[in-house]
Amino acid sequence: MAAASGVSRATVSFVLNDDPHQTISAATRDRVKQAARDLGYVPHGVARALREGSSRVVVLNIDAGMEGNYSRSYVQGLDAELAAHDHVLLVRHGHHTPQSTQQVLDAIAPRAVIRFGETYLTGRELDDLGGGWRDGLAAHSALQLRHLVEQGHTRVALALPEGESPLAAARLKFTGHAARNLGISVPDSFVTPLERSACAEAVGAFLTAAPEVTAIAGFNDDVALRVLRALCDLGRRVPDDVAVIGFDDNGYGAYTTPALTTIHVDAEAHGRLSARLALGLATDGLRPPPARVVVRRSA
């Protein structure tokens, strides 16, 4: 490749590895990259890993129950930013035992391993760019509750998904903190079954036991859409009798009647930020924008 492009082998190495400490003209870089394309050059992953001490693979573990619109967008941002820095993303879904994780580490020696939502799953309090009360789950939960309070609702309930959710405890904690900061009662919670009639029964039973509740905050849009359907089946008017707000803006809420108010989070920006942090790169200009309320008719 050096012979084909008319430069030294060292220059070829600097160009292919995008060495930031070398000053090489754009014309020379283009000539080397064209030679690489013409010769069909492909980096030898094992040799590179031996030289660098790790492969150019970043592993993302997503626990069961963590999938959703946010995780999909996060993966898109993470993958795009890693690709821009010549790294590859490997996503593992489901239950991850220490043994299976070690097998991955032994096989590919990844540059980094990220556990999706780890800070919340371990119960750590956050006050940094990675989340917490500035631009993480706590702030987003507070935004959801604040919108209802601004519409005049002081008795709110939190609707949770059926089955165990890894983030349910964190959401309950953050919603409770937000309620106290807003000066309202800490919301009660109830579970929304997947089956339609069972969900209507659960919503009806909860509202009968807590008639003072005038608004329901969904754990996510999937849960909020089930609540909307259940209220319709029960003959309850939304938002006149009960207001409903979703979370995570999965796109389907715009097509319901009434359309679902929800919280939109730029998860792709979070993914790009995580990629930079995983690679030890500067994060200048990648501060995620604040979450925002997508105002529709349901709240």
Describe the structure.
The protein is an alpha/beta fold. The protein is 46% helix and 14% strand. It contains 13 helices and 10 strands. The chain has helices spanning 2-5, 9-16, 26-39, 45-52, 69-84, 98-108, 118-121, 132-135, 137-150, 168-182, 196-209, 221-233, 267-279, and strands spanning 57-62, 88-93, 112-115, 127-128, 156-161, 188-192, 215-218, 243-245, 262-264, 292-294. It has a 4-stranded parallel sheet, sandwiched between helices. Strand 5 (156-161), helix 10 (168-182) and strand 6 form a beta-alpha-beta unit. Helix 5 packs across helix 13, helix 9 crosses helix 10 and helix 11 (196-209) packs across helix 12 (221-233). The protein is elongated and about 80 Å long. The mean pLDDT is 89.
In short, what is this structure?
This protein is an alpha/beta fold.
Strand/helix succession: HHHHEHEHEHEHHEHEHEHEEHE
Through-space gap between termini? 63 Å
Overall pLDDT metric = 89
Beta-strand percentage range: 5-15%
Taking strands numbered 1, 2, ... along the chain, how are they ordered across the largest sheet?
6-5-7-8
Q: Give the total of beta strands.
A: 10
* Integer-rounded radius of gyration: 24 Å
* Overall outline: elongated
Helix content: 40-55%
Derived structural class? alpha/beta
**Which residue ranges are poorly predicted, with pLDDT under 50 across at least 5 consecutive positions?**
none
Biggest beta sheet summary: 4 strands, parallel
**How many helical stretches?**
13
